[in-house]
Design brief:
heterodimer, A: about 425 residues, alpha/beta, 2 domains, seven-stranded mixed sheet, B: alpha/beta, Spore Coat Polysaccharide Biosynthesis Protein SpsA, Chain A, UDP N-Acetylglucosamine Acyltransferase, domain 1, Serine Threonine Protein Phosphatase 5, Tetratricopeptide repeat, 3 domains, ten-stranded mixed sheet, disordered N terminus, disordered C terminus, ARM-type_fold (chain B)
């Protein structure tokens, strides 16, 4: 009999595998249908797939003209976003790549113009060696912020000035195009490097976040968490290596309870979606941590004893609110009532520049049969069943965000957003 | 086609090397049923929209989801439409998830023919999925497939795994009149017996289980709670089994039943895989259409929901209250759009209109003060002001005038026009499609569609539509009521005959029929098929005779059954020829002249005084003709012809006329009314004859 090395059902793994061999249009279609069919879900899988796809798109693009590249990435990005508008990370990654291209195009131009102002500004930005684990575009504005605190205030008063900072004279044309000027080096290579960095970032983000664990989890604390988020698990595991504490785990029925049970009991989840399965090598209990699995309904009753709530999320919005697994809002509310701090751990890639004017539209409704069995014919016929997969949690219920860049107050997120995404890409 | 053949060879090479087996799938676009008439007169059923997406899209989505790489699509009726649709779809594009996509046209008239054709073509290289073009499922097939392969590894005879969805006792998606019953050995998931219970006929609502099954298995599950969505994982052996048993036509009632029954003979086993999560269903009839539309809108089939936008051009968006809406929808300020509604692009809804539980296609125009409740309105339909539509299907391009009432169960087929103020009464089916092969369409019936309207009431042909039972028995019943799913599996034209005899259509036959066992019906079915085909093809009467005898021998059928099948086959042939435009008298003369020997051989009372066999034949003819168009005329001609050919004697006619069976119901009396003149003539002729004889004696 044939060996079933390849999982039969298409998913992230099969997508990445075929990405190299398939023509690029096929891959795009493939990802679109995978997103539509929800065969790739979870923020990280979507982000990884998008980044890989865009890398192929750019390397297949036969032009080194930045404006053409941008157009191409925009058109692919629009289709991906249309396929699954509620996976906001797809849009985030597309915007980051667009930003990369624009940066490279402008750097290029800056070089030509030998613009001293921009040059001097960028000099202190890269004191670190090239093996900086952080994304370039991440580290650059941060350090620029450090060296030029003025720019932050100018940003507050004139939002436009921030974008014009890196290349002040040239960014008059917002698309970064410089007519009549052919770039003398291939910016594609730079962009591809940048995308590779994004991909690396996606792989490392959990570990980077976990590095802050010891600052936030102290001995003998009682931590409440929810869902089987890998980020949260790694965060707790890191702390568990040094400290003893208690974890109360809400099971997040009905959409994630199986994975949660597996996480708690330490059975390896056979989820192909998550590539870094090695992260699940040891459950918390193996580190001697007491883990208490509770039904979601018991959250409020136990909240009075909890020292800290640590939550994973689906995506983070520009206003500091978050879209997270259903049940998160209840937990955050309960925590608010009991004045328990709520900490959200999330990679920067989940941070979306989208402002939630209509949060209902951000919430995806899932499979009704998880709430009520489909075999219950009488009920199926007579009632409407809704199974929201996500909750919108307003910013005021969250006390702290921990990203791979460190801890931030929700009110500060706008700043990270503007560091990561170019203004012209926010609604492309 | 040539490169595809090459591809097939290659994949076969792969399979033999057992490097990696590609999963193949056979999609039956046409299931040779007529339950979607009158819509299927214009369009293949797999292109009918379900929640504004053609049915076949869901099936392909399921296959792509399952990781299928080779697809063989078998077209049936309207195969040119299907082909052009497929060629333009994303499944044929280079980016299609299917590496190979083969469209096979066939002239088959049953699933059995398709399977045998497939076997001849040698396209299938390994395990394959067999689905019909109306399956809707979000099931990842892995689990079932892995089990199937594991089983197959240990036992080469495990040839097929059926995927069944558990669905409690009552469920809207299950067909309610016929329920499939699976007898399963739960220890091995092996299906031991299969039968369909027809709730409408008292005779078949019991289960006959072989005693051996009960004695040899320590554990048995008898399950009626399963939705059979016709997703089968098959091995190539299945095809050869179809080929071996050349008379199987339907995949369940005949193939499955037959293979299970002949387990002793061929040793093949068929297994079940019962799923409890995920969604799997088949749009087998209009009731299921209604139920599955609701399921999809209520997200039971997630991620197969309208807002998944399966078709590239779609842009549905989920709003509050399970309202799916595309862009560019014009809603009047005062209209009320209720829950569970789908509205397609370009549709406009007028003032004070109420819409609820309704699917609206693209570019529909809904007037003012309209009430739409549970309606399915396809693209480009126009509904006038003040009209009410409840639980009806309105197809593409239909125009309904002002102040009309479309009652529940009405089906308005493509392009029908209903003029102002008309009430389409419950269960009526109105179409504009040409009925005959030469393209004539009957004139519009102003009684039904109003003055200036277009369309006529659709009455299905008897001999090709088992729904006829339904429409007759049930004028006024709704399409989503039980009767439309009668004889769920009947796929061939022939089973309509069987269901006629099943007693479900009128009580008057019950006496003559109720004692028939399954085996007999099989015989009748086979024999009717055989004789009918021969008559159509003009095979010589000896050959027909021979076939009939051999069939009779194998089935150990009674003479009564032989007569029944002969009568039925003849009448069917006659009816069909008449539809082809021939006059009743000519057809009957021609047929009976050529084949009267067949009838004669079924009669054994030539020399006796009482003529029970001949009377029986006449009664059977009469019964058969009750439900055929112009049955009374045909009966008159037939009686006359049989008399002239000296197949049936005068005494037999007298006895028949006197026989209470021939006049025990209104219908029977009606159909024989015309024959009265013949009987009278006969009585007179007898007298004349005797006088003639006297004359001749004198000469």
């Amino acid at each position: 009999m044939p060996s079933h090395s390849v999982p039969l059902t298409p998913g992230l793994a099969s997508f990445l595998k075929t990405l190299k061999t398939n023509p690029i249009d096929t891959s795009i279609e493939n990802l679109i249908s995978l997103l539509k069919r929800r065969q790739i879900r979870h923020s990280r899988s979507c982000a990884t797939a998008t980044a890989h796809l865009l890398r192929s798109v750019i390397s297949a693009c036969r032009t080194s003209d930045a404006s053409k590249l941008i157009e191409r990435v925009q058109s692919v990005g629009r289709r991906l976003i249309a396929a699954q508008p509620r996976e906001m990370v797809v849009g985030n990654i597309v915007r980051r790549v667009l930003g990369l291209i624009r940066d490279e195009a402008e750097d290029d131009r800056d070089g030509d113009f030998t613009l001293s102002e921009a040059g001097s500004e960028s000099q202190p930005q890269t004191p670190r060696p090239g093996d900086d684990p952080f994304d370039r575009s991440v580290s650059k504005p941060i350090s620029s912020l450090a060296t030029h605190p003025v720019s932050m205030f100018s940003l507050l008063s004139h939002p436009d000035s921030e974008t014009s900072l890196p290349g002040t004279p040239a960014t008059a044309s917002p698309s970064g195009r410089l007519p009549g000027h052919t770039p003398n080096k291939d910016i594609r290579a730079e962009v591809l490097d940048g995308i590779n960095e994004i991909i690396d970032e996606l792989g490392q983000v959990d570990d980077q976040i976990a590095a802050y664990a010891l600052d936030h989890i102290h001995s003998n604390e009682i931590i409440l968490t929810h869902t089987s988020s890998t980020t949260v698990q790694k965060f707790l595991l890191k702390a568990a290596a040094k400290r003893k504490f208690t974890v109360i785990h809400a099971e997040s029925y009905p959409n994630n309870h199986e994975a949660t049970h597996a996480t708690v009991s330490g059975k390896a989840p056979d989820d192909d979606e998550i590539i870094s399965t090695e992260s699940f090598q040891k459950p918390l209990i193996a580190h001697g941590i007491t883990v208490i699995l509770i039904p979601d309904s018991a959250v409020f009753a136990l909240m009075s004893r909890v020292n800290k709530v640590i939550l994973g999320t689906h995506s983070v919005l520009a206003n500091g609110g978050l879209v997270a697994a259903a049940g998160t809002r209840v937990i955050a509310r309960a925590a608010k009532v009991h004045q328990t701090p709520v900490v959200v751990v999330s990679g920067v890639y989940k941070l979306s520049p989208v402002y939630p004017f209509d949060f209902d539209s951000l919430i995806e409704y899932g499979d009704s049969s998880k709430v009520i069995g489909y075999e219950d014919g009488d009920l199926v016929d007579q009632i409407d069943v809704q199974n929201p997969l996500y909750d919108y949690v307003p910013a005021e219920l969250v006390d702290l965000y921990i990203t791979n860049l460190g801890g931030h107050a929700p009110s500060y997120l706008y700043r990270i957003v503007s560091d990561h995404y170019r203004k012209e890409d926010i609604s492309f | 086609m040539a490169p595809k053949k090459g591809g097939a060879n290659k994949s076969r090479a792969n399979a033999t090397e057992e490097v990696e087996e590609t999963l193949q799938a056979v999609v039956l676009a046409d299931t040779f049923e007529t339950r979607f008439e009158p819509f299927t007169l214009d369009k293949p059923r797999c292109l009918l929209p379900l929640a504004n997406t053609p049915l076949i899209e869901y099936t392909f989505e399921f296959l792509a989801n399952a990781g299928v790489e080779d697809v063989f699509l078998y077209g049936g009726a309207h195969s040119d439409q299907l082909e052009s649709y497929i060629n333009e779809s994303k499944w044929r594009a280079p980016s299609s998830p299917f590496k190979q996509f083969t469209y096979l046209k066939s002239t088959s008239t049953s699933v059995g023919d398709v399977m045998r054709d497939l076997d001849n073509k040698h396209l299938i290289t390994g395990d394959f999925l067999l689905v019909s073009g109306d399956v809707i499922s979000n099931l990842p097939i892995e689990g079932a497939l892995a089990k199937h392969r594991a089983r197959r590894q240990t036992d080469k005879n495990a040839i097929m795994t059926m995927i069944l969805r558990k669905a409690g006792r009552d469920h809207r998606t299950k067909s309610s009149s016929v329920s499939p019953v699976f007898v399963v050995d739960p220890t091995k998931d092996r299906c031991l017996h299969y039968e369909e219970i027809d709730h409408h006929s008292p005779e078949s609502s019991r289960l006959n289980i072989d005693t051996e099954i009960i004695t040899t298995h320590s554990e048995l599950d008898i399950r009626q709670d399963l939705i059979d969505c016709n997703i089968d994982i098959c091995t190539p052996d299945v095809l050869s089994l179809w080929s071996d048993s050349f008379d199987y036509q339907t995949p369940r009632t005949q193939f499955l039943f037959g293979v299970l029954k002949d387990y002793e003979l061929n040793g093949k086993t068929i297994h079940t895989h019962v799923i409890e999560g995920h969604y799997a269903a088949r749009v087998r009839n209009l009731k299921a259409y209604d139920a599955i539309s609701k399921d999809i809108i209520a997200r039971w089939a997630y991620p197969l929901c309208p807002d998944t936008n399966l078709l590239p051009g779609h842009n549905y968006d989920l709003r509050k209250g399970t309202l799916y809406q595309e862009k560019d929808v014009t809603l009047a300020r005062s209209c009320v759009v209720g829950r569970r509604t789908v509205i397609g692009q370009g549709t406009s809804i007028g003032d004070k209109t109420t819409v609820k539980d309704t699917v609206l296609g693209r570019n529909c125009k809904i007037g003012k003060n309209v009430i739409l409740d549970g309606a399915y309105i396809w693209d480009n339909a126009v509904i006038g002001d003040g009209t009410t539509v409840r639980r009806a299907i309105i197809a593409n391009g239909v125009v309904v005038g002002n102040k009309c009432t479309i009652e529940p169960g009405v089906l308005l087929s493509f392009g029908v026009k209903i003029s102002d103020g008309v009430t389409a009464s419950e269960g009526r089916r109105i179409t504009k499609a040409p009925r005959d092969e030469d393209g004539d369409s009957p004139a519009s019936d102003p009684k039904i569609v109003g003055a200036g309207g277009e369309g006529y009431e659709y009455v299905p042909y008897e001999d090709e539509d088992e729904d006829e039972t339904a429409s007759n028995a049930s004028s006024g019943l709704i399409y989503n009521m039980a009767h439309l799913s009668l004889s769920t599996e009947s796929i061939s034209t022939l089973s309509s005959e069987v269901s006629d005899y099943g007693g479900s259509r009128s009580g008057s036959f019950a006496t003559s029929v109720s004692d028939d066992e399954d085996q007999d019906t099989h015989f009748v079915q086979d024999a009717v098929a055989s004789v009918f085909d021969s008559l159509r093809d003009g095979v010589s009467s000896d050959v027909v005779q021979l076939e009939l005898v051999s069939l009779r021998m194998t089935a150990n059928a009674s003479d009564h059954e032989v007569r029944r099948s002969v009568a039925s086959a003849f009448m069917k042939h006659v009816a069909q020829s008449m539809e082809g435009g021939q006059a009743a008298g000519d057809v009957i003369r021609e047929t009976f002249r050529k084949y009267h020997e067949i009838i004669e051989r079924a009669l054994f009372d030539r020399d006796s005084k009482a003529k029970p066999d001949q009377v029986d034949l006449l009664v059977l003819l009469q019964q058969d003709l009750v439900h055929r168009p112009r049955g009374d005329t045909v009966l008159l001609f037939a009686a006359k012809e049989l008399y002239e050919l000296e197949v049936i004697d005068e005494e037999a006619y007298e006895q028949w006329w006197a026989d209470e069976r021939s006049s025990n119901s209104e219908e029977m009396r009606k159909v024989r009314s015309q024959t009265q003149q013949f009987i009278d003539w006969l009585a007179n002729a007898e007298e004349e004859e005797s006088s003639e004889e006297e004359d001749s004696d004198e000469e």
